[in-house]
Amino acid sequence: MSLQSRSADEIRTLHAEMEQAYAALQQAGLTLDLTRGKPSPDQLDLASALLEEPGQDFRDSAGTDTRNYGGLVGNADLRATFGPLMGVPPEQVVAGDNASLAIMHDLVVFGLLKGVVGSPRPWGEEDEVVFLCPAPGYDRHFAICEQYGITMRAIEMHDDGPDVEAVRREVADPAVKGMWIVPTYANPTGAVVSDEVATALAQMPTAAPDFRIFWDNAYAVHHLTEERTPTADILGLCERAGHGDRPFVLASTSKITFAGSGVSFFGASADNVAWYTGLIGKRTIGPDKVNHLRHARLLPDAEAVHAHMDGHRAILAPKFAAVQEILQDRLGGHDVATWTDPAGGYFVSLDVPDGTASRVVALAKEAGIALTPAGASFPHGHDPRDRNIRIAPSFPSMADLRAAMEGLATCVLLAATEQRLD
Ligand code: PLP
After folding, report:
1. 60 CB less than 6 Å from ligand 1?
2. Which domains does the chain have, with CATH numbers?
3. ipTM for the whole complex
4. DSSP 371-395
């Protein structure tokens, strides 16, 4: 029965039950962590062959000694494998070091200091620079904006991507220079940008001539079902709309191989790539080619990437299923929360009654269950409705995950009944 339709007495009874359950939870002395979307050790083991590579065979397929300087754009075989997965011609892909976040950071800083292709002046010389931030979204995107004084305007995230009408209205403002978007299995909702939304983003007129979409395809191949959901072809759509320089496409192997020692990728128009390599050429003589080579051997083509990801799916899908089962079992009957059931990616996004997310996170913390701070998925860490909680099921063992989810459900019900009794 939904909480709304219960009598005050019934709510008091449920509240007392949850208080008891919560006391038991505190007694249990748990130390559980549902905070960051990290691969578990058994997922990392899938790529342990990397630790044996390249051995003494350190020349790449072109005969280059990977131990030495050079090769700014990265290993050609890897670019040939990942280009099609990113929807970018391999010659317009740059393979970088271990973090696509670092590329995104560079792109923003380069925009501020130098301007991008088509900028009338560096962004930093504008009175105000605005980025559109689909929310809930990835907290580290927002942290980059915060660090450099970029104004963030939240855009509501729907199941098929950001609210296109709102985006259209915003880009009529010339201060709007950029937009974050995770097109496939978004962090944290799992939403996938539809072809219609991608087409609208590609075609829409923007007041800023140098507007950029940061198309962060971190979860492009991270399916949780047998269906390999394709990502909209943003580069092609933008080219056909006459806005070929609009998208910056990002990806990495962080959640394919080793999260801390993977390979990142940047893809874009030929002009954007020339702009980018011109700037990074001052910052580095070249990427870690030894790491590129060992990745090229582990993942020789797109099919190898998909086969490798099937291994991740076998580990992750049961964990995501357990999250659904426990949420449904514990909260489904009370109509107090809604949550996403993603077909890929790393997160489940849970919405609890407005005004209770911070309380739920605090209760969980006191019971030894670490959750991402409430509001973390919103610009400046502020969820205007204080209702969203991001769940990251990948890292804990199944037993820990189940215990943490049961505990979380207790905290949600305790906070919801408290609120109803106030
Ligand atoms: N982009 C998104 C949407 C993410 O969720 C993450 C990690 O959680 C990253 C980027 C980080 O990627 P990388 O490890 O390549 O810096």
Report:
1. no
2. 3-43+306-421 (3.90.1150.10), 68-300 (3.40.640.10)
3. 0.99
4. -PPTTTTSGGG--TTS-EEEE--SS
